[in-house]
Amino acid sequence: MCKGLKTNFLGVELASPLVLPAGVMGMSYSGLKICVENGAGIVTSKSLTKLPRSGHEGPVMAEVPGGFLNCMGLCNPGLEEGLAEIAEFKKLSTTPLIVSIFATGREEFTELTLAANRSSADFLELNLSCPNVFDEFGIPLAASREQVFEIVRAVKEVSRLPVIAKLSPNVLSITDIALAAEAAGADALCLINTLGPGMLIDIYARKPVLYNRFGGLSGPCLKPIALKLIYEVYSSVKIPIIGMGGIQSGQDAVEMKMAGASVIGIGTAIYYHGLEIFNRVNQEIRDFLEESGYESWQAIPALDKIRD
Amino acid sequence: MDKRVTLRIADIVKECSDVRTYIFQHPLAALPGQFIMLTDFAGGEKPFSLAWCNDQEFAVTVKAVGPFTQRLATKAAGDIVSIRGAFGSSFFISRHRALLVGGGYGTPPLYFLARRLLEAGAEVTVVNGARRSDDLLFCDRFRRLGVEYHNITDTGGSGREGTSVNLAGELLKTSKFDYVYTAGPELMMKSLIALLQDQPCQFLMERYMKCAIGICGNCTVDPLGLRLCVEGPVLNREQVERITEFGVYHRDAAGHRIKFTDRGEKIT
Question: In total, how many domains does chain A have?
Fold first, then answer.
């Protein structure tokens, strides 16, 4: 991998700034591994819960112009088996891995964190923002500054791994939430989770297209919103940001870097461009570095902060 | 492409007590081995390989095994369902001597393949195996195609007694085939590998599918990470021989690993 793509994230050297986000290809060690083989610089497990979850009944995926609605519903084999998949991945790869966890409150998050401490993961992501489990768990934790603060602080007290808070775009002020996470000691932020959720109706069946009725929106249509929210948060916090939402090209990735993200997630673009998307975006970033005269990814500056 | 479309069931053919073929009047651009995702809006969306597909219509053959497929069994012509697809890889269309080895519920997609092979000028031999003769699917349809056709069941009955792999093994010894295709229970397909000579072989593999568009990762196979909804469900012998979970385990909706039983069936 070209030297220009190397980047440092929370003290760990990455071969590429491209991240496989939670919920994409991360069900098994082999799914994670093939994303690394295709050029991802960090991979994220599925969000693991204490007990296995089968997720929502299908349909769980529906295409819209510019993206997809999905309501996977946090399917995962549970913490124990999920960590075993991670261990198997780590036997085969030195690529850094983020273990993502989902829980309903502070105590459960703490319990999962203690288990994650014993894993071979490099980072811990708190999924505070799944938009597809309203019926079960109510409004996501990421909607509340107080809850985010309390959970991040409790997790930071016990976590051996750097802690990343994954935030939702579906709030009045994502900056307030980001500041709460930072104040509680979060090492990094990940944004944005899927937007909405939204819905589609089948007019012949007179039924929602998704069996869960609602699903989070992902895909290229998200990019302007993701850029705006990342830029807003970047302007207010000092901790690094994993940026994601609608990235499909090296140009998109550079745009998000300029909005203030340190590393960039690619998820839904796998559908449009195949798993090769990681290598293609890596190459497009290299081309941009060359034509623009930046010596490395890390040397690409962000815009001036809003309040500068 | 995702291409969701809502359709009325045009016709339902009862194949045997718990197996039905659902026919739709819709020009679906699909190739043998590919599958659709089908839902009836009442909870659940499942993958089904195409049993045939032409400019006017397509069909899927479904065995009522779980809550979703049992509910499908209560549908009538005129009822509404929605489909996405077709998805996945398809069978290579050989123009030479082809041997098709099907077991049980894996046979219908081989019927679609047989039709396309014949159209391409191939010489087609079909081995259709099942536990009992009542479970043999598509016998008449295959016979009407004019292929060399062999029935075989565990109990004898209307054809030979044995397994489709036994019979395929005999045919492979006595005749020369340029291409072998197989679909059915995974352990059946696995035992076929040992009998192959150096000819290419393609396998129709099944795994739990959710998104069907290569994103969710539920259907990736170890250790290669191939997504059966994109790189599969039709895989080449060279790929299958490197899949360590082939005939050993599969993952359920939660990603939990489940071992195949001795009969090669999936426990769900």
Answer: 1
Structural domain of residue A126, as residue ranges?
7-56+76-195+219-299
Task: Give the residue from B2, B5, B40, B41 with the most A CB atoms within 10 Å of its CB, the best one to mutate.
Answer: B41
For residue A34, what is the domain's CATH number? Answer: 3.20.20.70
Instruction: Check residue A101 and report its DSSP letter.
Output: E
Q: What's the confidence (pLDDT) of residue B2?
A: 65
Nearest chain A residue to B244 by CA: give it.
A30
| Exposed/middle/buried for residue A182 (C-beta within 10 Å: 0-12, 13-18, 19+) | buried
Q: Choose, from A2, A130, A190, A221, the residue flagged as catalytic.
A: A130
pLDDT over 70 (residue A119): yes
Q: Touching check for A85 and chain B: CB below 8 Å? A: yes
**Would A96 be classed as within a structural domain?**
yes
Provide the chain A residues 121-180 that lie in CB contact (below 8 A) with chain B: none
Is A130 noted as a catalytic residue in this protein?
A: yes
CB contact under 8 A, A58 and B37: yes
Classified as helix, coil or strand, A87 is: helix
Could you tell me if B178 and B104 are in contact, meaning their C-beta atoms sit under 8 angstroms apart? no
A154 located within any domain: yes
| In-domain check, residue A204 | no
Q: What is the pLDDT of residues A158-183, one digit of tens each?
A: 999 999 999 999 999 999 999 999 99
State how far residue B79 is from chain A, nearest Cα, in angstroms. 10
pLDDT average, residue stretch B223-237: 98
Closest to A45 in 3D by CA, of B255, B261, B129, B189: B255
Are the beta carbons of B215 and A268 separated by less than 8 Å?
A: yes
The 10s digit of each residue's pLDDT in B185-214 is 999 999 999 999 899 999 999 999 999 999
Question: What pLDDT score was predicted for residue A135?
Answer: 81
Mean pLDDT of the region B115-123: 97
User: B258 at the A interface (CB within 8 A)?
Assistant: no
Whole-number Å distance between alpha carbons of A2 and B38: 45
Contacts of A121 (CB under 8 A, 6+ apart): A45, A86, A90, A97, A98, A99, A161
Residue A275, pLDDT > 60, answer yes
Residue of B nearest to A57 (CA): B44
Contacts A23 to B, Cβ<8 Å: 216
Cβ separation A27–B256 shorter than 8 A: no
Residue A222 DSSP class: G
Q: Is residue A305 part of a domain?
A: no
| Backbone dihedral angles phi then psi of residue B258, each to the nearest 5 degrees | -125, 130
Q: Cα(A241)–Cα(A75) distance, rounded to whole angstroms?
A: 26
Report ipTM (2 d.p.). Answer: 0.94
Better-predicted residue by pLDDT, A235 or B3: A235
Q: CA A201, CA A237: separation in Å to the nearest integer?
A: 40
Side-chain half-sphere CA neighbours of B47 within 13 A = 26
> pLDDT of A60-108, one tens digit each?
999 999 999 999 999 999 999 999 999 999 999 999 999 999 999 999 9
